[in-house]
Amino acid sequence: MAHERGEGRDDRLAHAPGALLGRLALAGRQRVEAVGEGSEPGAAARQAVVPAFAALVRHPSTALKTRAIRVLEGRPEDLASTALIESLRDGDEAVVRAALTAVVATPNAHAAAPVARLLSTSPSWSLRAVSASALGALAAREGDAGAEPAWKALAQAATGDSFAVVREAALGALDRAPPGLRAEALRKAASDPEPSVQQLAARLSTTRP
Question: Containing H/E element for 131?
Fold first, then answer.
């Protein structure tokens, strides 16, 4: 009986997040060995496990999803950026926060549109504030045409969000926005009902013409 309980416990451990991640890492090393020489081993190992970790963003475990996001962060493969953008729609706020950090650090992740949707529709004020900061960084690296909707979403949040902390985050994220749009947002924020927003608008008005 004790032996049977031990087997059951081992089986459960084999499906734990750490065990699964270990198996994925081993699979990556085996793929590298199968490919053979010709590329830098560390880079090859990371590339080999991208498909497996991209699939993990749909796993039920929050721990696995956030760990997978960290592995995919900054990766150049389209599969990695697609998985990170998909994670922005996750129902777990911790996963979405991790994905917001990751898409900003992943140059080929064109995530301005989904992040703008988070900023305008998320019921979580704290997530909207984080989205505002991320959107400013994403808009700054987009081309002019791609960035325009993002800057407009930030300007709208800076003057229209119901939480002052979100309005402040959006104002700060407009630092590299087109001068006219930024100036108009700061002008409106100067009469915000919250003194902290007014003060931020006054400070930001002196940092750029």
Answer: helix 125-141
Kindly state the tokens that stand for 153: 């979403």
CA nearest to 135, candidates 118, 159, 121, 156: 118
Amino acid letter, residue 171:
L
Specify the pTM: 0.78
Distant-in-sequence, close-in-space partners of 30: CB < 8 Å, separation ≥ 6: none
93 φ/ψ angles, rounded to the nearest 5 degrees: -60, -35
How many other β-carbons are positioned within 10 Å of the β-carbon of residue 56? 23
Q: Give the pLDDT confidence of 72-89 residue by residue, as tens digits.
A: 999 999 999 999 999 999
Say if residues 164 and 196 touch (Cβ distance below 8 Å): yes
Domains of the chain by start residue, with CATH: 10-109 (no CATH), 110-209 (1.25.10.10)
